[in-house]
Write a structure and sequence with these properties.
elongated; alpha/beta; TIM Barrel; about 625 residues; 2,3-Dihydroxybiphenyl 1,2-Dioxygenase, domain 1; 2 domains; homodimer; 8-stranded parallel barrel
C-alpha cells in the first residue's frame, strides 16, 4: 500500500521534513498546518517541492472545532474553512482532516453536526476537496470512531467521509471490529500511530508519547487488518507526536518510520518481505583500538590467545572457547555513521562490529535490506571473503556470518593462524602472560562464549534501535528496566534469540548530551566466575571494586554457603537471582569506551543483573572521578 | 521545624549529596538504601561524615514487603530486618521506614499485619530502632494513611509508629483531615513532596515527577497544618523522585529544596520570614556587550537615546519613555554563576541584570536572603550608591531599586547626564540617527516601557526558577504552555505582579544540551506597534521576516479592518487575541544572545503571543541557518 507521513512526525523545517520523507521512500505526506505557517515557502512552492521529491500531498490538517455549533459560529467556521480550502488548492492537497470538536460551545446534537458537516462538504466540493471527519479520543461529544461514522453516514455527502486514527481508537480501548461495518470508500484516510501502554491522561499521552507502529503496545496490525477488510485502499499514513522524535535528526527518524510501516504490513499479512533469519550465536566482536596495548593486555589477562592475523590488514583474532574478538588497529574503519568521540584512557577503543552467526547470511542481508538497514560493501578488501553486513542505528556494523561452515564463505579464511611459537608476541610487542604459567588450572573459569553485548544507544534513537533489532534480526525484546546511576536514570532493554545464543542489551542514558561517550561492554560467559576472576587477577587484571555495603545487603537478602559471600566480597563479584536461577558477575576496568564483564549464568536466569547496575555505575564513576 | 532531605532527592555520590544538603542548611538526611550500597564509605564513615557536616541521620529507608505474609516468609523478613538494624546502628540512624507491602504474597489480614509489625518493632527496639510504617499509594492491601495507622494502633508497640507522606496521601485524593486523629507522638516521621497535577498511573507519577513543595499542584501546606495540629514535632523531610533533579547539580537543587521548605512553613503559618515585597515595575535592564556597536545601533534604531553615563565605569544609560537600558561594555561583570557561552554575531551580548522597582528595596533583599537567594555585594564600586541585589537561578542579577525616590539611594545618582550636544555620539563612536530627522512623528510608536523580559532558563532548573520568582519576588505564575520549535518542544511560564508592571517569561528548551546558547529577549511596550515598526525600519533596523502563510492563516481566523492585515504582512507584525483583547508584536534580529520585541498590548490581554512563538522560532532559525 502507499505510505505517507505527517510532517509533525519529523523534526526540522518543512523543507527538511519533506526531503527526509522522500529519501526514506514515502509516497506522500500529510502537511501539518503549523509546519506550513512557519515555512517561508508559499503553498505553490511546497507543492512544487513535493512534486520534485515524488511526494503527493495526501492530507492537510487539521481543521478544528467546526461542527455542532450555533449558526453564527458555524458561519464564521465556514468562512475560515474556505480560506483553508483555497490554501489546499494552492498546495495540491485534496483531503482535509476535520477533528471532532473540543470546543465548549459545541452542543451534543448529532443531527446538527451532520447538517453542518454536510454544508462544509458541499463547500469543500466546490474547491475539489474531500472532508475526512475523525473522532478525537478527547472530543467533547464525539470521541469514538463509530460515533463519527454515524454522523458521516447521516450527513450523506459524497465529499464527506471518515478518517480513522489507530491511536484514538486503540487508546480508548474501543474494539476495532466495527470498522468492518464502514464501507471502504467512506474511509477517506487512515492515520497510524502506536504508543507505549501508559495509564495517563489520553491527551498528554497522545501529544508526547506516540511512536511508530511496533514500538509501542497497541495492536496496530490488528486494526489495520480490519481497515483493509473494510475495503480501504488509501495510504497508510503515520501521524506521531513524540517529544524525542521532534528533537532527533529527521533522516534517521523517517527511515525508522518507513521501516515500521513495512513491518506493520508484514504483520497484517499485506506484504511479504524476505523472512527474518534469526541469528544463532555471536561469531565475533570486533574492536577498534588505535592503541592496541591496553586492550590486548586486558584480553590476555582474560585468558584470550591471539590465534590468527588477517592476511592483509592489522586485525588480530583473539580466541577463547567460542568467544572470538577481532582487534583492529588500522585507521578508522567505521564506514557508517559518526564514531562517538573517544573518552578516557585507551584512546578510541570501542566495539565497532558484531559478527552474528546466521543460518542464511544472504537471506539475513535481504531481510535487512528490505527493512532499510544500510547495507555495507560485501568485501572490505578485494581478497576478502564476501560478507553480508548492515549498520545498526547506533553505527555498529552487523556481519552475517557462517563460520567455517561447508559451502559458505567464512570470514575466518581471511585470517592466517599465528604459529604457536609466535602466539605469545602480540601486535603490541608485549609477550602473553600465558595462563598455564600462572599456576591456575587452565580450564576452571575459562571463557566459554560471549554471553551478551551491551550497547549504549544514541539518546534519540532508542525506540528505533529496539524496533531495528527485533524486525531486522528477528530477535525478541525483553522488558524495559530503569536503572539509576549517580546522575540520572538509564533505560535498558535486551533483545535475544530464543535460546539465548544471541543477547544484546540496549540502553540509553539520562540525557542526549552524553551521546559522545557511549560506553559498551562485552559480557563473557564462564562456568565458574570465581575461578575466572581469580585467573584474571593472577594474570594482572584489575576488577572493578565493589563497595562493602553491597555485600552487607546481599547477606541480608540471601543465604549463602559458608565462605561464598566472603569470596564475592574479596573479588568484587556481584550476585542476582530470579525464578530461574542465579547470576554471578564482575567487571574489568574500562579501556576507551569499552569494558568486559565475566558472567556465570544459571541456565534458567533470564536477566542481566540490572538490580546491580546502580552499584556498578557508581563504582565506575568513582573509578573515573573519585568517590 | 527541623529540615531533612532524602538522599534520593539529590544527584551524585552519597558524599556529594551529604555535602550539598549540609551547605543548603538542612539539619538532617534520610539515607536511601541504594545510595549507601553504592557508596565506598562504610556506615561508620557515613555517620562520621554526617556528624562533621552537622547532619543527623533521621531515617533509613526503605524496608519493603515485610508484613502480612506467611510465617516462613516473615521469619526470613525478620532475619533481613536484623541485618538492616545492624547497619542502622553503625550508621547512627534510629528510625526505619517500612512501606506497606506490594508483594503478591501479602494477605489482606490487618490482624496478621499488626502482629508481625509488633514482632518487628520488638526486634527493632533491641537495636534502639523505631519503625515508621507508611502506606504506599499503591500498596497491595494497605494504601491509605488511616489504614496504616489503624494497623499501627492495633499493633500497639512503643517502637512502632506511622510515617506520613504528602504525596501518597494527596495523590490518592484522600482527605488529610483525619491526620489530626493520630496522636502526634505516634507520627514517627513526615515525608513531603509535591507533584504537578497529572492524570497518570500513580506509581510512575511518584517515581518520575515528584517535585519540591510549591512546585506542583498538591496542597502540601494544608496537609502540613493537619500534621502539626496532630502534635507532630519531628523533622520536615523532603523525599522527591524526579528524573530532572537526578541529573541536575546537587548544590542548586539542595538550595531549591531548602527554599521550598521555608516557603512551605510560611504558607502553613509555622514561620514568618520577612514578607515578600512585590516589585512594581522594571527600573532597567542591563546588557553586557564586549562589542557595543551592534546593540547600540539596535537601541538607536528602536528610538532609544543615550542619556547618561556611569561616573566611573563604561556603562551607558539608554532611555526612551520609562524604558531604561544599561549598556555595560566593561570586562565580564557577572558576579554569580557561569555566563553562558556567547553565540552568533554580536559576541557575548546578553541580558545580565534586571533592576526591579521596589517599594522597599531593603525589605525585598531581606526576603530574598531569608529564602536563600545568593546576595550580591551592595556596592559595585566604592563611589556607587548602595543597591540591594541577588542572583536568580539562571545567574541573572536582580537589583531592588528605588529610582529617584525621596530618602532612598537611587542607582541613577551613579550616572551623569550626557550633554545634549554629546548625546548623539555613542560609546561606539557612531552618531545617533535621531528620530526627529527621520521624518517620522516622534511620538507615534514611541516605546513607553519594558513590557516583559523573556529569559531562557537552564534546563535542569526550570522548576527552581518558577518557585524562586514566586517566593522570593512575590510574583504570580501564569499557566505553563508548550511551544514547538523546529527541533523540539519548549515550555514557557510567565510570572507577573498584579498590574502587569513586572512580567518575566521563563522558558526552557527541549533538552539540556542547548543550555549554552540560552536566548533572552526584551519586549518593549508601545501604543502603536505599526508606527514603532515603521520608525524602526526608517532608522535602519531590520525586523524578523514572517512567512506569508502566517498571514493567510490570520485572514482565516480573524476579521481585520481594510488594509490592516496587509500592513502586518508588510512589516512582519504578528497578531494574537484572547478574551481580554489583542496583542500585536514584532521582533528585531538577534544580537549575541539577545533580541528585542515591540509589543502593543490591549489592556485586557494576558498572554505573550505564545500562539505565534512557533512561527517566530522557525523564522529565527531560518535567519540563522537558512529555511
Amino acid at each position: 500500500m502507499r505510505t505517507s507521513i505527517a510532517t509533525v512526525s519529523l523534526s526540522g523545517t518543512l523543507t527538511e521534513k519533506l526531503t527526509a520523507a522522500s529519501r526514506a521512500g514515502f509516497d506522500g505526506v500529510e502537511i501539518f498546518e503549523n509546519d506550513l505557517l512557519a515555512s517561508p515557502l508559499a503553498p505553490e512552492e511546497v507543492r512544487a517541492r513535493c512534486a520534485d521529491l515524488g511526494l503527493s500531498v495526501d492530507l492537510y490538517q487539521p481543521m478544528r472545532d467546526i461542527e455542532a455549533v450555533p449558526a453564527g459560529e458555524f458561519a464564521r467556521n465556514l468562512r475560515r474553512a474556505e480560506h483553508k480550502f483555497e490554501v489546499m488548492r494552492r498546495l495540491g492537497a485534496d483531503t482535509v482532516l476535520v477533528c471532532s470538536s473540543v470546543s465548549p460551545h459545541a452542543v451534543d446534537d448529532d443531527a446538527l453536526a451532520a447538517e453542518q458537516l454536510h454544508a462544509l462538504a458541499e463547500r469543500a466540493q466546490d474547491f475539489g476537496v474531500r472532508v475526512a471527519y475523525e473522532a478525537l479520543a478527547w472530543g467533547r461529544h464525539v470521541n469514538t470512531y463509530d460515533h463519527a461514522w454515524s454522523i458521516v453516514r447521516a450527513a450523506d455527502h459524497p465529499a464527506l467521509g471518515t478518517c480513522l486514527d489507530s491511536f484514538h481508537i486503540l487508546a480508548r480501548g474501543c474494539g476495532p471490529e466495527g470498522i468492518e461495518d464502514i464501507p471502504g470508500e467512506k474511509i477517506f484516510f487512515l492515520q497510524l500511530a502506536d504508543a507505549p501502554l501508559m495509564a495517563m491522561d489520553v491527551l498528554q499521552w497522545s501529544r508526547h508519547y506516540r511512536c511508530f507502529p511496533g514500538q509501542g503496545g497497541l495492536d496496530v496490525a490488528g486494526l489495520l487488518g480490519h481497515v483493509v477488510r473494510a475495503g480501504y485502499r488509501g495510504p497508510l499514513s503515520l501521524e506521531v507526536f513524540n517529544d524525542v522524535f521532534r528533537q532527533a535528526e529527521a533522516g534517521p527518524t523517517a527511515v525508522d518510520a518507513q521501516r515500521s510501516l513495512r513491518v506493520l504490513q508484514e504483520a497484517a499479512g499485506l506484504a511479504e518481505p524476505p523472512a527474518p533469519v534469526v541469528p544463532t550465536g555471536v561469531a565475533f566482536a570486533e574492536l577498534v583500538a588505535p592503541d592496541a596495548q591496553p586492550v590486548s593486555a586486558l584480553l590476555r589477562a582474560l585468558g584470550f590467545t591471539r590465534t590468527a592475523r588477517h592476511r592483509s590488514k592489522p586485525v588480530d583474532l583473539w580466541q577463547q572457547g567460542e568467544a572470538r574478538v577481532l582487534l583492529n588497529t588500522g585507521p578508522a574503519v567505521r564506514r557508517w555513521g559518526r564514531p562517538p568521540r573517544p573518552s578516557g584512557s585507551g584512546g578510541g577503543t570501542a566495539l565497532a562490529a558484531i559478527g552474528l552467526e546466521s543460518p542464511d547470511p544472504a537471506g539475513a542481508a535481504r531481510r535487512a535490506e528490505s527493512l532499510l538497514a544500510p547495507v555495507l560493501p560485501r568485501r572490505r578488501a578485494p581478497e576478502d571473503a564476501p560478507l553480508d553486513a548492515v549498520a545498526a542505528p547506533d553505527g555498529t556494523e552487523l556481519f552475517f556470518c557462517a563460520t567455517d561452515r561447508d559451502g559458505l564463505p567464512s570470514w575466518t579464511r581471511d585470517f592466517e593462524a599465528v604459529p604457536r611459537h609466535a602466539e605469545r608476541a602480540g601486535t603490541d610487542g608485549v609477550p602473553d602472560a600465558g595462563v598455564a604459567e600462572s599456576g591456575v588450572d587452565a580450564d576452571a573459569g575459562a571463557v566459554r562464549r560471549i554471553d551478551h553485548l551491551a550497547l549504549t544507544q544514541p539518546w534519540h534513537q532508542f525506540d528505533e534501535a529496539s524496533l531495528f533489532h527485533r524486525s531486522v534480526l528477528g530477535l525478541r525484546a525483553q522488558e524495559s528496566v530503569d536503572v539509576a546511576d549517580p546522575y540520572g536514570l538509564w533505560r535498558s532493554r535486551a533483545v535475544t534469540n530464543a535460546d539465548g545464543g544471541v543477547r544484546i542489551a540496549l540502553s540509553v542514558g539520562p540525557a542526549p548530551g552524553d551521546d559522545g561517550a557511549r560506553v559498551q561492554h562485552i559480557a563473557l560467559a564462564t562456568d565458574d566466575v570465581v575461578a575466572a576472576a581469580r585467573r584474571f587477577r593472577a594474570a594482572g587484571g584489575r576488577l572493578l571494586p565493589v563497595p562493602g555495603n553491597y555485600y552487607d545487603d546481599l547477606a541480608a537478602r540471601y543465604a549463602f554457603a559458608p565462605g561464598e559471600l566472603e569470596t564475592y566480597r574479596e573479588l568484587g563479584v556481584l550476585y542476582d537471582r530470579d525464578e530461574g536461577g542465579a547470576f554471578r558477575h564482575c567487571y574489568t576496568e574500562t579501556v576507551g569506551r569499552l569494558f568486559f564483564e565475566l558472567v556465570q549464568r544459571d541456565a534458567g536466569y533470564r536477566g542481566y543483573g540490572a538490580q546491580n547496575a546502580p552499584v556498578r555505575l557508581a563504582a565506575q564513576h568513582a573509578q573515573r572521578y573519585g568517590g
